[in-house]
């Protein structure tokens, strides 16, 4: 029996995956039975993968406290209708490597998966090459009904989390992805990339101090050519101290809402929209960003800016712009952008 996407990703998505399965299927395996050590010295990739592969449908792999070395070139590959549950003191530590593209956790072409608890520590401080920018903590690709919650992901060579599609004769986007109470900090390329996908929810999460290679955003919505990112909601999140924009919508992003977020102290724009359509930016605090609070470039279309608080943005640019143009440092809209509505209930301080 396949779980309904509505049940996992809708209002009840905070429930543990096992609680949505028949009791007989909710088995829990102990990774120590498969030779997993968690001592921070031995490579646990093969043993952990064996434990994951042994899970029955609906089963949980429970990882206790410890330091588990993972080879990102092999990745831990999650399976359909399984759960990886980690203790808060669990750390998955990326083994130093020279690969331009490698992932600690890979959730690809599967459905009904949950990963919760614990920390993922990337190899950016020990990477063995200067090439590439795709060394991610978690890669979700062409998957459905995935819940990522209560995780801390730091120091990755690429992104903390990347959500995208599978390329081929037909693109398979990821669908019904929920990210809750996650912290992505100190990663090299992005805190979170949202690529070719449908129905992504990002709730109560923090994307902090991304820097090292472009774009360096807290969240970047940037699907590859051939498909789009649609129906994205980012709510009650913090995007702070990133080298690029707090949030970037680059191209092919549609129906995006950003509500009740703190977008603060980013070196670039608070929000940069280059090609987004049907976006709502509402009730956010957008303050102290190095460039504009919100910048909408050519290609932006049907965007509503309402009920936000702006303060202290573009301090380094103020001498370069005429001071009689009120509010340009907070909301800057290109003439070629279409259908941009800035409501009077925004507060400019």
Key terms:
single chain; 349 residues; twelve-stranded parallel β-sheet; 34 strands; 4% helix
Largest sheet: 12 strands, parallel
- Average pLDDT score: 91
Residue share in helices? under 10%
What percent strand? 35-45%
**What is the terminal separation in angstroms?**
54 Å
Globally, the shape reads elongated
Low-confidence stretches: 1-25
Strand order of the largest sheet: 1-3-6-9-12-15-18-21-24-27-30-33
Rg result: 20 Å
Helical segment count:
2
Structural class estimated from helices and strands:
mainly beta
Say how many strands there are.
Answer: 34
Short description:
Helix content is 4%, strand content 45%. With 349 residues, the chain is mainly beta.
Describe this structure in words.
The protein is mainly β. The chain has helices at residues 5-9, 45-54; strands spanning 28-29, 39-43, 60-63, 66-70, 76-77, 82-86, 90-94, 101-108, 111-116, 119-121, 134-141, 144-149, 152-154, 159-164, 174-180, 183-185, 190-194, 197-203, 206-208, 217-221, 229-235, 238-240, 247-249, 253-259, 262-264, 271-273, 276-282, 285-287, 294-296, 301-306, 309-311, 331-333, 338-342, 347-348.
